[in-house]
Write a structure and sequence with these properties.
The complex is a heterodimer of chains A (about 300) and B (about 325).
Chain A (H helix, E strand, L loop, with lengths): L11 E5 L3 H9 L4 E6 L10 E2 L1 H13 L3 E5 L6 H17 L4 E3 L2 H10 L5 E3 L8 H10 L3 E5 L4 H8 L5 E10 L2 E6 L1 H5 L2 E4 L8 E4 L18 E5 L2 E6 L4 E4 L4 H6 L4 E4 L6 H19 L14 H7 L1
Parallel strand pairs in A: 1-2, 1-15, 2-3, 2-4, 4-5, 5-6, 6-7, 7-8, 8-15
Antiparallel strand pairs in A: 8-14, 10-11, 12-13
Helix pairs in contact in A: 1-2, 1-9
Chain B lengths: L5 E6 L2 H6 L7 E4 L15 H13 L3 E4 L10 H13 L4 E4 L2 H10 L5 E3 L8 H8 L3 E4 L7 H11 L4 E13 L8 H4 L11 E5 L2 E6 L2 E9 L4 H6 L4 E5 L5 H19 L7 H10 L4 E2 L41
Parallel strand pairs in B: 1-2, 1-11, 2-3, 3-4, 4-5, 5-6, 7-11, 10-12
Antiparallel strand pairs in B: 7-10, 8-9, 9-10
The chains are: A alpha/beta (about 300), B alpha/beta (about 325).
């Protein structure tokens, strides 16, 4: 399998697909590449993961349309699990996948060493936020690094100057209070080890740990009301700040900054929610490529709570 | 005779450094990892950083300079200068939480010992092995790891693991400070806001807010488990006092200094006065973090009263969020 990106000749629209139906509508709506979670191994948990059979069918559908498919393996496997997962990656390569998304420096380095032609993306869970992070993950073997849509065009421009690595921006995402990849508030409250069936009892998913992934994962404790206590007195009831980022109207600046891949968050989005989002970004990218102004598109006024409750 | 262990802690600014009795510690991490605007953050006031390193070393202690947990691009030039000052002023090591910063420091100062901090997300031996190649000589594994997992990394990679043995455990880092919303209402401004006694409470559990940083409400306490930690070959221990008073730093440090000396001498026993001190300083109660493979706020041990909470209810009666549909 050859690496399919050098510096991207044109912007790539990378859409989530948490089910075969979601994959179908994402491709119909104009995604260049879709990313799917392999059951048991993706950040975000069982909701939005594909079985091996579903993955095979979805891969065939994508390739039949000349599109690409990446597989999210962005939990952090333990030592015993890692051997198994590295073996699964070899199977996936044999199936013809177009890349993997990983979350751990150790796994990334091992995959790059074993499978030097495998396209590897440093997941949003790597919490890369600056150009030095981009260079670090490139050095480990990442072909692309995902940056959050919270970064400015100037920051993206600086990141895009790092040679020999593609810049992906999660342009449509929920910005939670805690930086993605730097949170273990849920597991502070509850952590449930759960056997991972694929490993025949030899491995566990730790429900409650976003980093460990697996079924259930994050309890979203940050999205419930908190009482703020100041010097022993309860002074406010509040939510921790979060917001939906949909930077479609800043797309020209983002692409002008040299961003290669426009990534959309939401493997748990239902097909009816996903299709219009992908279509909207497709039209905006096409307009930018055509040299004309990107149409001012009215984003849905999504409150984070609305989006979160449905993703 | 070389002391068999190191007890260290964190101090953010010169004022706090001068107000603290450092005699219970072997090393001090200097700087605040959460926010550039933290009061006189040593990472932003490089003259102060030089003074702080000199002060720590004048006490005969090791001086470590920490760095930001989640730096944006515009942090990097100043951070690079802070690391250069650390080297010039004779710091014994720097601590990095961000892997881009690790690369910067390793390339600029190839021989400088680097401690990898808890926000660097070292979960596995493979991850630790990679960071070792970038100059890491010590690792604080991610706080979610159990002692068993930490031991595996230690054995596989051969680097010392630094363990948080007491204090409020970091749970997350944000790019925003929501406390700024309260400047008018509370009649105080940054950087005073995050130095207040602030807790986020949800039913029967709590987390401490330090603005951009979130810490455990309970104090991690490994006092009665020190013999196990020592028996498993751990020698680097941290008391997290970044959000605490000089009194906390002194009194909790004294407890652990005595307890570690006893543990390394192979003597069993926990003094009642130690518990009295730790309970007095723990506003929300005590927990073991994730060391026993359980949720971070649980406490396992022979001192069930250690979990006594200012929130009035013991862990066993905690709200069932799953039953309430909060867990998706």
């Amino acid at each position: 399998m050859a690496r399919f990106f050098s510096r991207a000749a044109r912007p790539i629209l990378l859409a989530p697909a948490g089910s075969p139906d979601a994959a179908k509508v994402a491709l119909q709506a104009g995604a260049d590449t879709i990313y799917v979670g392999l059951k048991g191994w993706s950040r975000g948990g069982a909701k939005g993961e594909l079985t091996s059979e579903e993955l095979l069918d979805t891969l065939a559908a994508a390739h039949a349309q000349g599109r690409k498919l990446q597989v999210a393996l962005n939990t952090i496997p333990r030592r015993s699990e890692r051997r198994y997962l590295v073996g699964r990656v070899e199977e996936l390569i044999g199936l013809g996948i177009d890349g993997v998304i990983v979350n751990d420096a150790g796994l990334m380095a091992e995959l790059h060493t074993r499978y030097p032609e495998l396209r590897i993306t440093a997941s949003i869970g790597c919490a890369a936020m600056n150009e030095a992070d981009v260079a670090f993950y490139r050095d480990l073997g990442a072909d692309a690094v995902v940056l959050p849509g919270t970064l400015s065009a100037d920051e993206l421009y600086a990141a895009a100057q790092v040679p020999e690595v593609l810049i992906e921006v999660m342009i449509h995402m929920v910005e939670e209070f805690i930086v993605l990849g730097k949170c273990w508030m849920p597991s502070y409250y509850r952590l449930n080890p759960t056997p991972l069936a694929e490993l025949h009892g030899e491995g566990n998913r730790l429900i409650g740990s976003m980093k460990r992934g697996g079924a259930g994962v994050c309890f979203k404790v940050c999205e419930h009301p908190w009482v703020l206590s100041l010097n022993g007195q309860d002074v406010a009831q509040r939510l921790l700040p979060s917001r939906q980022i949909s930077s479609i109207n800043a797309l020209s600046d983002i692409l002008d900054a040299g961003v290669d891949v426009v990534k959309l968050q939401g493997r748990s989005l239902s097909p009816d929610l996903l299709a219009p989002i992908v279509g909207r970004y497709r039209r905006a990218i096409d307009a930018w490529e055509g040299g004309g102004p990107v149409p001012a598109l009215q984003e849905l006024p999504l409150e984070p709570s609305w989006t979160v409750s449905r993703r | 005779m070389t002391q068999p262990f190191e007890l260290n802690t964190t101090i953010s600014n010169l004022r706090d450094l001068h107000a603290s009795d450092l005699s219970l510690y072997d090393a001090i991490y200097l700087g605040n990892i959460t926010c550039r605007l933290y009061e006189a953050n040593l990472l932003e006031h490089l003259g102060d950083l030089r003074d702080a390193i000199a002060t720590v070393k004048a006490h005969g202690l090791k001086a470590y300079v920490t760095s930001y947990a989640a730096p944006r691009n515009d942090f990097l030039p100043k951070l690079a200068k802070a690391m250069a000052v650390a080297v010039e002023a004779g710091a014994d090591a720097v601590e990095v939480h961000n892997l881009g910063v690790l690369k910067i420091v390793h390339e600029a100062h190839p021989g400088l010992p680097i401690h990898v901090g808890g926000f660097a997300n070292v979960y596995t031996d493979a991850g630790a092995e990679v960071l070792k190649q970038f100059g890491a000589v010590r690792i604080t594994p991610n706080y979610e790891l159990s002692l068993e997992e930490i031991g595996q990394i230690h054995r596989q990679v051969g680097l010392p693991m630094e363990l948080l043995v007491h204090g409020k455990m970091p749970l997350g880092i944000s790019d925003h400070c929501f406390l700024l919303e309260y400047e008018e209402a509370w009649g105080m401004k940054c950087p005073d806001l995050c130095q207040q006694d602030l807790f986020l409470k949800q039913g029967d559990w709590a987390m401490k807010s330090v603005g951009k940083g979130v810490l455990s409400g309970k104090d991690v306490c490994m006092l009665e488990h020190l013999p196990r930690l020592v028996g498993e070959g751990n020698t680097r221990f941290r008391i997290e006092t970044v959000s605490e008073s000089p009194e906390y730093r002194l009194e909790v440090g004294r407890v652990y200094r005595e307890a570690l000396e006893r543990a390394f001498a192979g003597t069993d026993g926990v003094e009642e006065r130690w518990w009295t001190t730790l309970r007095r300083h723990a506003r929300i109660g005590l927990c073991n973090g994730f060391y026993f493979g359980r949720s971070g706020m649980e406490y396992l041990g022979v001192r069930p009263d250690a979990v006594a909470s200012a929130l009035r209810r013991p862990v066993a009666e905690t709200t069932d969020y799953q039953a309430q549909g909060a867990i998706r």
